[in-house]
Amino acid sequence: MGVAAKHAGREMLSRARSAAAGLLELAAEHEARAIVLGPLGSTAHRLLHSSPVPVALAPKGFRTAAGARVRRVTVAFGGSDPSLIEAARREAERVGASLRVASFAVRAHAPYTSGVGAEGQGGVLDEWEEAIRAAVPDGLDVVIGQGRDWEDAIEEIEWSDGDVLVVGSSPIGPVAQLFLGSRAAKIIRHAPVPVVMVPR
Asked: Is 36 in contact with 169 (CB distance < 8 Å)?
């Protein structure tokens, strides 16, 4: 099959067994910094499980004005990989953007018979938020999104034109490759801004 791609403003055509395989071959051949795609689909899903370089995705229907630039990088942080924050900081500095750290929590729907009600769950979430803030380097803005589901949690924080969300690969994947874990998949699916997923 033929795969079309652009590199340094030039359009290229490559023959490969699949679109994902062709894009990976072109990325390796031209030492690409990232693979940039449209919305999450079958090709993007395959790349999110195998790419050795970051993969950038735009949400469905995303449009940007000519000459627009990245103004703020938001890094999704679960508390366990500070190197992701440093990688996002370097990219933010490279493009002249500000940096903030975001964490998302989905409130569990406790059964009516459970002894842990909303008050007990609130205490757990408060402890989790404190742990997240303590793990983030000093001087960085931290925002927390909580909701009944992932969409609510992501929409709870403010998003603006020029925002990009950085998500890290799951640690269960191969070293130096992307592996789309379930949390990352949910964040990508509901993000209202472009997402860049980076290898761990």
From this structure: no
